[in-house]
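Hey, I'm writing a tutorial for new members on how sequence and structure tokens pair up, and I'd like a real worked example in the thread rather than a made-up one. If someone can provide the structure for the chain below, I'll link this post from the tutorial.
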Amino acid sequence: MTTDKYVPVIPKSELVDGQYYEGESRNASVARWDAVQGCFLYWVYDFGSRYLDYISCPEDDSVHDVFVARKVQIAPPYEIPLDPRSGSAATQPGQNKS
């Protein structure tokens, strides 16, 4: 990422619940905003496994990796599911703090 790592392009106040965004982080270029949890959800691919993880937006973390949403993703390349029981992406989030 560039030196403007913690400068939001789309402010948190303008993020839409359930919307996919193209952006930038260490491990994701597409993420889905989860307003219930107040963070982004994205797929992690690790040693042949795939799992969902959360990452903060720049306004909420100035130390760890964040997802900088750059534009709305109209046709996401894959689904990032939201949990229908809670209205959020997952019931037990594993916060990514790398």
